[in-house]
Amino acid sequence: MWPTIYSGFGFWDVYSWIAFFIILNALALFFRGQGRGDYKKGTEQDEIFYGGNEVPEDGDDFAVPASSAYWGFTEALKGFYTKLLDLHTGLATDYVGYMFLTAAVLMALIVL
């Protein structure tokens, strides 16, 4: 009824795909059926495990600022990082200029 469709990259057999999805759905239903029967939604089984501690109400209580998270990175590369901050002007025309300069250097390296 449905022929096999040949493309430039292989073939598509409709019956094979239907069989694949039937097998896939059967496996999904099998694995779903293996769940625990004593699970009760809305009880303490649904609570988030936070290392045995009480989960804070507000996320600001445990927020870490980016300056603290990347302190070692910025301190180790301080000289390079300071020069990058000097180049960071916030003007799009400067960034386009950097892009053209980088492309010119790369093209020069490729040609040479």
Keywords summarizing the entry:
two-stranded antiparallel ribbon; mainly alpha; 2 strands; 112 residues; 5 helices
Order of helices and strands: EEHHHHH
Helix content range:
40-55%
- Form type: flat
User: What would you report as the Rg, rounded to the nearest angstrom?
Assistant: 29 Å
The largest sheet, given as strand count, sense and whether it forms a barrel, is: 2 strands, antiparallel
Outline the low-pLDDT stretches.
none
The proportion of strand residues reads 5-15%
How far apart are the first and last residues' alpha carbons, in Å?
A: 61 Å
Tell me, rounded to a whole number, the average pLDDT. 85
Helical stretch tally = 5
| Derived structural class | mainly alpha
Number of strands: 2
Concise summary:
Helices cover 54% and strands 5% of the residues. It is mainly alpha-helical and 112 residues long.
Task: Describe it.
By secondary structure, this protein is mainly α. It contains 5 helices and 2 strands. A two-stranded antiparallel sheet has the order 1-2. The radius of gyration is 29 Å and the shape is flat. It starts with a strand and ends with a helix.
Task: Itemize the secondary structure elements and their pairings.
Blueprint lengths: L4 E3 L2 E3 L1 H20 L32 H4 L1 H6 L1 H10 L4 H20 L1
